[in-house]
């Protein structure tokens, strides 16, 4: 997909009247990946003009100033977002044109070729980057990258829907909340869980010089599959009468089994022998790292729904590969359900206390030190509860949204489907090595 860039501009902190201040990153922000995330959104024509989109973005950033700041340190040496420095930060806006029609490129699927639809992720200077790609038909693809340490998925989805309201001239019913009054540690702080192992790399294991992000595997593939309401119902229909699984739980149980088969990790498989010989996989255990939103799990005090920042921890369902082979989908779904349930208010409170005890120490997320191949494990992100699919700038409406290309093997992202004839269906992006992706495509919808 070829586009021609014809304009660059930066919405400065001065334009959004950012006050001079430094907002320290919370322990949840410091757990988030130290990287930009790229996502593309396509809209059928007719669409708002570029000028209207940029004006609306500028007005919206007045209420979301951290997206226009830059990372640094406060007076106490704590990692922080620096605001009000008119010489740095700002939001990069790129305008590009395509000679083709949008429909020539639909449906969108994850591809390295989509990288030219948004500014480079590597060495990005700005925390938020927006590229407006206008097609000959008037259709639009927005390519957006944002630094994960500024906000999680729920926060960013609220930003996008607010931007849409601003462009349409609607009144904002609720503004984002930056107050950290809910982030209260106990006195004295009490850590009841192994946060130095599951969330952060133990200090004794940190090298003198931290390595850079691992290179992307050369033979990586990003697979996009659709699971219809009917298929998910069939999966849930195999569950016992007294077992109530959510769409996420039952579909994740299914995916965990199918991906393990596709990777050839079951005993006796040729791939298993090859990968063990290469030293890439532990022999017997596979685990799933599932991102858990803490907003509905903290009640004392209650976290504002529109809190803007990161508030995510992880659940870790684990199973022996041999057991997973023998499990039904219900068994694996139950593992997912039980593991997620364990990450409740007590776990989040323990993590807040951990942050209070260790706020002056170097905190390196475990995920930042992993290689480009996660097998035999998985990292799972559910966007099912977010409002990305409700972005509305007026006009033709959103027709597709997805991560453009995920450069790590073993990532699973679940998204609400935009298929008009299958409301309630789920689209899933799965990243696997090419030889495993071929098998996954063949078995992704097989029951049992």
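-> sequence recovered:
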């Amino acid at each position: 997909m070829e586009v021609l860039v014809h304009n660059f501009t930066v919405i400065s902190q001065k334009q959004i009247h950012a006050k001079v201040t430094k907002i320290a990153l919370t322990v949840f922000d410091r757990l988030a990946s130290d990287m930009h995330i790229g996502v593309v959104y396509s809209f059928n024509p007719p669409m708002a003009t570029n000028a209207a989109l940029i004006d609306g973005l500028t007005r919206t950033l007045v209420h979301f100033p951290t997206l226009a700041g830059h990372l640094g340190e406060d007076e106490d040496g704590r990692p922080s977002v620096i605001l009000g420095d008119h010489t740095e930060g700002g939001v990069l806006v790129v305008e590009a044109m395509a000679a083709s029609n949008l429909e020539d490129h639909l449906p969108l699927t994850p591809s390295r070729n989509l990288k030219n639809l948004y500014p480079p992720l590597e060495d990005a200077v700005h925390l938020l980057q927006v590229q407006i790609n206008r097609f000959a038909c008037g259709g639009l693809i927005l390519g957006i990258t944002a630094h994960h340490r500024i906000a999680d998925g729920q926060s960013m989805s609220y930003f996008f829907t607010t931007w849409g309201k601003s462009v349409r001239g609607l009144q904002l019913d609720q503004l984002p909340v930056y107050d950290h009054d809910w982030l209260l540690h106990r006195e004295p702080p009490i850590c009841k869980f192994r946060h130095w192992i599951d969330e952060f790399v133990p200090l004794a294991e940190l090298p003198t010089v931290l390595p850079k992000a691992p290179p992307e595997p050369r033979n990586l593939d990003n697979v996009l599959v659709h699971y219809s309401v009917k298929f998910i119902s069939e999966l849930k229909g195999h569950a016992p009468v007294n077992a109530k699984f959510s769409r996420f739980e039952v579909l994740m149980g299914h995916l965990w089994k199918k991906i393990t088969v596709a990777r050839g990790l079951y005993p006796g498989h040729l791939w298993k022998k090859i990968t063990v010989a290469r030293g890439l996989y532990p022999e017997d255990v596979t685990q799933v790292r599932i991102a858990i939103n803490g907003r509905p799990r903290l009640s004392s005090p209650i976290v504002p729904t529109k809190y803007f920042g990161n508030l995510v921890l992880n659940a870790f369902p684990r199973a022996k590969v041999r057991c997973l082979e023998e499990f039904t989908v219900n068994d694996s779904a139950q593992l997912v359900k039980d593991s997620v349930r364990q990450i409740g208010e007590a776990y989040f409170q323990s993590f807040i206390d951990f942050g209070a005890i260790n706020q002056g120490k170097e905190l390196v997320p475990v995920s930042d030190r992993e290689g480009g191949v996660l097998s035999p494990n998985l990292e799972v992100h559910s966007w099912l509860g977010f409002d990305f699919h409700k972005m509305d700038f007026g006009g033709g409406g959103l027709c597709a949204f997805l991560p453009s290309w995920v450069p790590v093997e073993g990532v699973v992202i679940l998204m609400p489907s935009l298929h008009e004839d299958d409301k309630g269906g789920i689209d899933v992006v799965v990243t696997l090595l090419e030889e495993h992706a071929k098998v996954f495509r063949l078995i992704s919808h097989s029951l049992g």
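The longest strand covers residues 285-293.
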